[in-house]
């Protein structure tokens, strides 16, 4: 396909592999296996398989490969590997890079399951140091000769703290470490992670890529050497590959990704500015607001404030619950990036396993509600949030 195509063109055309029938839409090859014309052909394929030769869906599949090619083209990496979930992607991306005695530095503003993966690695003798990801000095101080990987979410879940991809990459590379970025909150639409120095991008496609809250998925993007080397070897032998059916859903989601994410970001900016300064709020948190601590960085790094807004209610948990229960358009759930707007109370759901102190350390207060903005009409969302704030 053409390198000159813009994102929206790539999102609908990139990676298409048409069968002999010339089908218009991406075909769903719902097959785990492939037939070889002879025993010699089977032997040859196991020895080395070409771009359009497949063995088993845990290793690769034509529908999955279409999705991998499309997402690599959007992120600007040489290759990608599709995984069963965001966590399969992040587990694979990190685990295939380290062995006992190696060291990982990671931002402590982190999704709980990612923290669990690091704990498992620690059990196998990998050193882990957690730092405040927004402070470059802490990254620098944590590096050791054994540091192999620096890992962080470029926009943290749920606190919406923005971490400097370029700054961390410079520190990591000066120490010979590799940078793995979970870019799920920026989505590929606002991602310049490769340009800014990240080596590997790994995230959940369950969120903005599906966009309809239907299927689990994840992806790891990087160089061909890494993706078809250690990453594929690890994921295919440990069972983390994406189902062809889910790849087919993701391909259809990608066609509207740019339209949706931009509409969601516009809605997020509208809701954040309407809510900012409301008497019931301690804070409206949105990287697109000028009072956000990393506003300038967010604009440089993403060119947008993104699709997520947090409101921190002065009245704590009780007020947050009154707010959630008063919402009419926005649903109480825990996915994000969906076409439908979703509100979550992190302290009692997604981040309930952390202690009060651990939550405080990453700015998760009892009054905080995270809202993933959907593609509904922005004025309906503003009205919904404002009436729910009044009711809180
Ligand atoms: C959702 C999410 C994940 C995990 O993705 P799954 O598809 O649910 O496995 C990892 N990191 C972040 C920041 C997420 O928001």
Describe the structure concisely for a colleague:
Belongs to the trans-sulfuration enzymes family. MetZ subfamily. The chain has two domains: 7-254, 3-Layer(aba) Sandwich (Aspartate Aminotransferase, domain 2), CATH 3.40.640.10; 257-391, Alpha-Beta Complex (Aspartate Aminotransferase, domain 1), CATH 3.90.1150.
Textual characterization of the structure:
39% of the residues lie in helices and 15% in strands. The chain has helices spanning 7-13, 39-47, 62-75, 86-95, 112-123, 136-142, 165-174, 224-238, 244-255, 257-275, 295-302, 316-326, 356-361, 378-391, and strands at 79-83, 103-107, 127-131, 147-153, 178-182, 200-204, 218-222, 281-285, 308-313, 331-332, 342-344, 368-372. The strands form 2 sheets. A 7-stranded mixed β-sheet has the order 1-7-6-5-4-2-3, with helices on both faces. A 5-stranded mixed β-sheet has the order 8-9-12-11-10. The mean pLDDT is 96. The structure holds pyridoxal-5'-phosphate. Pyridoxal-5'-phosphate binds next to helix 4 and helix 5.
């Amino acid at each position: 396909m053409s390198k000159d195509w813009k994102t929206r063109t790539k999102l609908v055309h990139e990676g298409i592999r048409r069968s002999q029938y010339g089908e218009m839409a991406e075909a769903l090859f719902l097959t785990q296996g492939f037939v070889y014309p002879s025993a010699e052909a089977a032997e040859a394929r196991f020895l080395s398989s070409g771009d359009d030769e497949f063995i088993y869906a845990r290793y690769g599949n034509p529908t999955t490969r279409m999705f991998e090619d499309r997402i690599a083209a959007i992120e600007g990496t040489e290759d990608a590997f599709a995984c069963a979930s965001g966590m399969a992607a992040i587990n694979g991306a990190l685990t295939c890079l380290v062995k006992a005695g190696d060291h990982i530095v990671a931002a402590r503003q982190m999704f709980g399951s990612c923290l669990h993966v690091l704990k498992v690695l620690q059990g196998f003798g990998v050193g882990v140091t957690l730092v405040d990801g927004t402070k470059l000095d802490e990254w620098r101080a944590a590096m050791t000769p054994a540091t192999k990987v620096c890992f962080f979410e470029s926009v943290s879940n749920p606190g919406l703290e923005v971490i400097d991809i370029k700054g961390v990459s410079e520190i990591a590379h000066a120490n010979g470490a590799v940078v793995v970025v979970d870019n799920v909150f920026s989505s590929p639409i606002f991602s310049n992670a490769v340009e800014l120095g990240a080596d590997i991008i790994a995230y959940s496609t369950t969120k903005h890529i599906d966009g309809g809250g239907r299927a689990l998925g994840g992806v790891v993007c990087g160089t061909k050497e890494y993706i078809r080397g250690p990453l594929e070897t690890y994921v295919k032998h440990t069972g983390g590959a994406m189902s062809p059916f889910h790849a087919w859903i993701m391909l259809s989601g990608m066609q509207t990704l740019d339209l949706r994410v931009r509409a969601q970001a516009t809605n997020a900016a509208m809701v954040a500015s309407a809510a900012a300064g409301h008497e019931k709020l301690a804070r409206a948190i949105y990287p697109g607001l000028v009072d956000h601590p990393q506003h300038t960085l967010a604009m440089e790094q993403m060119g947008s404030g993104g699709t997520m807004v947090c409101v921190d209610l002065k009245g704590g948990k009780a007020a947050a619950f009154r707010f959630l229960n008063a919402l009419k358009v926005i649903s109480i759930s825990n996915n994000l990036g969906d076409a439908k707007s979703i509100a979550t109370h992190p302290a009692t759901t997604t981040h309930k396993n952390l202690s009060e102190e651990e939550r405080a350390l990453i700015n998760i207060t009892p009054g905080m509600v995270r809202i993933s903005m959907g593609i509904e009409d922005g004025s309906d969302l503003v009205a919904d949030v404002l009436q729910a704030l009044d009711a809180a």
